[in-house]
Amino acid sequence: MNYWLVKSEPGTYSWDDFTALGRDHWDGVRNYQARNNMKAMKVSDKVLFYHSVKDKEVVGIAEVVKEHYQDPTTEDTRWVVVDLVPVEKLPKTVTLEQVKADERLTDIALVKQSRLSVMPLKKEEFDIILGLAYDDESK
Q1: Per-residue model confidence as pLDDT tens digits over 39-81
Q2: How far apart are CA 40 and CA 28, in angstroms?
Q3: Cβ(6)–Cβ(117) under 8 Å?
Q4: Which of 23, 57, 75, 90 qualifies as a FRET site for 49, CA 20 to 30 Å off?
Q5: pTM
């Protein structure tokens, strides 16, 4: 299993928008590195959902339910989507400030490549973020 983080502006597409749909494709990615990350996603991979720009916080957990296919919002075959479903809203959001302050997360892509909208996470990074959300760092 692989672990990922996807970013969305809550004013454009929020966790609540996503959960209201129950399943959705992750579209509109126009960065080659983010696209390549989506192409690497596999069914059952876990995904952290991050509100970018204003709130800057991890808000929920999603799961990949369909691997990459042509992005239906464009005819350009270079771009793909994956289908995600919401798994759970985090009991407590994890802010970018918390991530930056945690010495164990100094190399996380969220800090190193802040403009990337789809990024891989190591299992340890995923678990640390969940630990911060649940106030239990052993999770």
Answers
A1: 999 999 999 999 999 899 999 999 999 999 999 999 999 999 9
A2: 17
A3: yes
A4: 75
A5: 0.94
